[in-house]
Amino acid sequence: xxxxxxxxxxxxxxxxxxxxxxxxxxxxxxxxxxxxxxxxxxxxxxxxxxxxxxxxxxxxxxxxxxxxxxxxxxxxxxxxxxxxxx
Length: 86
Known about the structure:
The protein is mainly α. It is built from 2 helices and no strands. The chain has helices spanning about 15-50, 50-85.
């Protein structure tokens, strides 16, 4: 019987090296989309205010977050399937 992902096969404990290797790409994706959305939102607050452009930039910010959530979710599912297959 094989052990589940993130478990060291010799000791049966958590494999922290594998966990770190999986966390960094995931954190990079989250920071990419979160930072991009934050940048657009700050631009909205500082420059556009309550104008039509401001409302449009808020919608753009929400779109960036929605796309980011979708991509991060797809990455997690695809990577989970890869790890489960071995």
